[in-house]
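Re: the multi-chain job from yesterday

Posting the exact lines I submitted so nobody has to dig through the queue logs.
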Amino acid sequence: MELDLKQVRNTLFVRIAGEIDMMVAEKLRKTIDRRLETNKISNLVINLEKVTFIDSSGLGVIIGRYKKMAERHGKMFIVGARPSVSKILVFSGINKLVSMYNNEQDIINI
Amino acid sequence: MELDLKQVRNTLFVRIAGEIDMMVAEKLRKTIDRRLETNKISNLVINLEKVTFIDSSGLGVIIGRYKKMAERHGKMFIVGARPSVSKILVFSGINKLVSMYNNEQDIINI
Amino acid sequence: MNMKNYVRFEFPSLPENVSFARSCVGAFAAQLNCTLEEIEEIKLVVSEAVSNSIIHGYENRPHEKVVVMATILENQIMEIMIEDYGKGIADIEQAMEPSYSSDPARMGLGFSLMKSFMDEMDVCSEPGRGTSVKLKRCFQAKSRALA
Amino acid sequence: MNMKNYVRFEFPSLPENVSFARSCVGAFAAQLNCTLEEIEEIKLVVSEAVSNSIIHGYENRPHEKVVVMATILENQIMEIMIEDYGKGIADIEQAMEPSYSSDPARMGLGFSLMKSFMDEMDVCSEPGRGTSVKLKRCFQAKSRALA
Ligand SMILES: Nc1ncnc2c1ncn2[C@@H]1O[C@H](COP(=O)(O)OP(=O)(O)O)[C@@H](O)[C@H]1O
Ligand SMILES: Nc1ncnc2c1ncn2[C@@H]1O[C@H](COP(=O)(O)OP(=O)(O)O)[C@@H](O)[C@H]1O
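And the result, structure tokens for all chains:
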């Protein structure tokens, strides 16, 4: 898994590449949480365009981050999940809580 | 493994794609030999551009075809072997018997 | 039903072997006449079951033995067995309930995913002796053409 | 020397398993800090040894057992063992000679390739009981940077 974090004002973009499983879930969780704690972030954008695989360990990190953002009355967005990844997200029901977009531009346009 | 055979006058072009190992060696040998027997072929061009793997079972087919062509005073050419494949060909010594070219155009130009 | 091919593999309970195990079973499943989407689903269920063995069965101890056996039967049927010799499950019915997890940090979706992407699931477990999950999936012979 | 990781796998002597075996060991070797070229070499030697077990050890009978064990040791060392319970080799020295093959249709290059691409090769065999080939390769930790 590769990770790229970028902050634009109060929005944190987390761009993930590769496979998200138990091997990397902890690192992903910690990296995001560290940024959420030290910065004033009210929007969290999880970009999954380059994610080729996710399992329930990965889902756990995403749903956990959603809960964190909801607690602080922030918003979360999921971007660019390919069909095989999106299928797992839908299975978990996260799509009922978080809006899913095709690309980052679509969020900026809303 | 995928195979594409094309004859231009007395030259047979054999374009191979994929991996050449014991699983496919027999099919490769038979397909080429059938064409060599039924047609008047004096030049055999083995195009390895799309071959990603070869082991000694694959080498056996190539060296065997060289011997066949030599018996009938024909010529053989090897084309487009990538470094990992070329290394194995060189190991077998076939490069001392058969000329190796970068692409089919290079043969036509000689 | 006759066995056409199988692979049995054994490896230690290291986190890096989860991805290794699912790729290998995925590569093996490619011998079936099935779609890439179906192979992705096979990789997912292997990932879930192997993660469970490591996380729950062995509580993340890294040098315990995990065994995966994948079998291709006639008629496009694939069976996968994932086995550990760890902690075991006391209440299998509860464990299989959607959203149940003994670990508050986890989702409890592993068994639900396995059940939903496979045609049959059979869990055998004994506390202190280990767990074995048997999964079965029947692929449509024409799936590639339909996809 | 400590074992860092291993995988042991077992499969029937079917020709389609040669490519499966080399991909799996290749995927496993990717856990080492080594180059793509080195992984290709590992795949080659596995292909040679597994082909030998099927072709010579089992004379192409398709449902006999082949075992491959790959071990990663400390210091970037990889050991691979390929084992069959087939015909065995009566004269190991002769078998290892470059260009020697008991089968006139083959090249006799298998052992030469294994020897040349690995740092150590050790062949144990007993006629009627089977053959085990042990290969060892030490990778330079900095190979990725040098490549
Ligand atoms: N191999 C195993 N060994 C021991 N317990 C297990 C094993 N697999 C599953 N369990 C138990 O079943 C529960 C549910 O598993 P699962 O549905 O995969 O969800 P999760 O992994 O998120 O907890 C686990 O929390 C654990 O208590
Ligand atoms: N696993 C094996 N079981 C029985 N005989 C073997 C085995 N591996 C190698 N041999 C013997 O050693 C010889 C040389 O092997 P090798 O160098 O790989 O060349 P080739 O496979 O082209 O014959 C083979 O021809 C065979 O007689």
